[in-house]
Amino acid sequence: MEDEKSFTDLCGGRLALQRRYYSPYCREFCLSCPRLSLRSLTAVTCAVWLVAYGLFSLFENSMILSAAIFITLLGLLGYLHFVKIDQETLLIIGSLGIQMTSYYASGKESTTFIEMGKVKDIVINEAIYMDPVEPHRISQVVPVFQSAKPRLDCLIEVYRSCQEILAHQKATPTSP
Amino acid sequence: MPSRPCPRPRPRCSQPRGGSTSQPALSFPSRAPGMMLKAFFPTCCASADSGLLVGRWVPEQSSAVVLAVVHFPFIPIQVKRLLAQVQQASRVGVTVLGTWCHHQQEPEEGLGHFLEGLSAIFTHEPWLQLCREKASRAWSCRATHHQVPATPGTPSEDQVMLIFYDQRKVLLSWLHPPAVLPDQQAGDATASAGGLAAVFDTVAQSEVLFCGDRYDEGPVRLSHWQSEGVEGSILVELAKWASGPLCLLLASLLSLVSAAGTCWLWRLWPLPFIGSKLSTCEQLRHRLEQLTLVFSTEKAQSPSELMRKANTLISVLMDVILGLLLLSWLHGNNRIGQLADALVPVADRVAEELQHLLQWLMGAPAGLKMNRALDQVLGRFFLYHIHLWISYIHLMSPFIERILWHVGLSACLGLTVALSILSDIVALLTFHIYCFYVYGARLYCLKIYGLSSLWRLFRGKKWNVLRQRVDSCSYDLDQLFIGTLLFTILVFLLPTTALYYLVFTLLRLLVVTVQGLIHLLVDLINSLPLYSLGLRLCRPYRLAAGVKFRVLEHKAGRPLCLLMQINPLPYSRVAHTYRLPSCGCPPKHSWGSLCRKLFFGELIYPWRQRGEKQD
Question: Which candidate from A113, A172, A176 shows the least CB-CB separation from B549?
């Protein structure tokens, strides 16, 4: 069962939250971040090239232009592969664990899985500099949806669903 | 216990039982929720024929790890015997967990009764019944408890979650739990690491179950990841066979070399002193230790030891290859001759620059007014040293090419040895700078201590050595007079000495920086775990940071099917976990203590050699 809703993030960009209910104890939340805008990309490229042309006219060395090409390409590749996150997913499987996946713009996937035995609770923590919605460990706090930065209304939806599953989990005895 | 073999079940009238094998119990809020059972099923058995499920039941996690499928026909007593053997050999509690049914169309009634009957022969709580249709590829599973019913008379059922795993990858991978936090106990971490680590351990320790394949003529027919044919490679077998005698030979050679190294001749002074100062000897010793470790005849006890050995071997091989490349580059095109020809003029040039510097200091450097007499003395003293040094270099110049040629041969021992020799050559060639630095520092240090002591006299205080503190003291008039005189003299001579000290310290720091960079490179080559990084690149499932799940099937009325894949360790963690120990320690000064030492004129030793105490 799939469901899509639209929210805004902290900076005002548009976020899409997709909820999938696979089963009563398995749910997935996908948060899609705003895509890379052509405007900002063009602006950065133009800025780099203006600086390169300025230096070239000063020093008359064509290596500067080649260096500018390299820097732009490598910078773009690095940004797409290491920085720009397209989608963040939270998969909760009751009695197994919680899995958080980040999908980068270059297709890279980075996954973290925390076993249910290690998760103490999922809370919304209101802090100015740190991102909200964190599952607690004994001495470690793991933030979720760090790069999408959703607002409170979106988080409340996710929080309610997660707490339903965790409540189920806590109600069932763990040993036969 | 029936002793006749259980025949393959024959299809009877095709009345489907109607839903009972395909509906897992859903939990509704109005009803008390059942326990969630996790069944780990190997992907290789998904297309196997019907039979019995064999594996391990982990009650704490409520999970059943299926290791293999026993096919019909079988004799129950032989199956039990096999399982007992496996249990003894691997110390894993392998039992029959349930039944597996892979059929063409809807299940028949007779089959259902037959499968139920099996649960009476091989009792297990809970009894799993996995089912798959060939045509529609639909899965269904059901777990029943016979002994602990919720309502008496009827067996209770659990919800089951199917998790598929790749048996071969899980068998071969090593799980790296996240780093233990400093405030947690080590025992705590292993206890809480249960769960998925239990699954990995079960599969890894049950290797003896996977030894046979379907071409074996055993009493019991099994299906697992190796049932199509046991994996093997001729090269690997040959290497294993040859490694025994080879290791023995190399170990004896290495013990001979190390025995020669500890011979009494090397204890004669000044050889140990020189040996401790040269980084080449340090590097050679380190390499000898590493090679002894690699070629030792004991088998590696744990995977981390094995990785260490492999990393060391590959690192040494890489080092030697790079060294040979350097050697071929140096000895081709008469580069040694060019280098030797360039060396003496460079040394001359350096000496000339130093002379210019001293002339500048002896004049009015940067417009400062120096004390002429002291200036001249110090300047001439250092100029004489430079003159000696230049004569020495000119004396050596006919032999330099020969020496360089022979030293270049040492590159075949490895690039790190060649770099260490380079660092030692740099140290030898700039020995005069080191001497100047020591002279300047000692002079400056004496001056500073003298000044501080006389300053205390000026104020009527004294340093009490017994109590290690400053005490007041009454001086005679003579003492005060001489003390004040000396104090004044020292104060006015301070700028000159300080300037010489500053200049030579900067030169020394420059040389130390160059040597430090070379040592950094040597450390990098020494400690980089190439084998682990290569393994992470080519076989990422071998080094696992954890697992990741993917939801495969989630139709209503069918059990939830997940695929468990291995999440490989990131490269930074691989390099950090498996890095080899490097020789020599990193400098232990903080910036604050370094500045303090520089200000008071204490000598700095930028790196500690083994056994060397700080002055």
Answer: A113
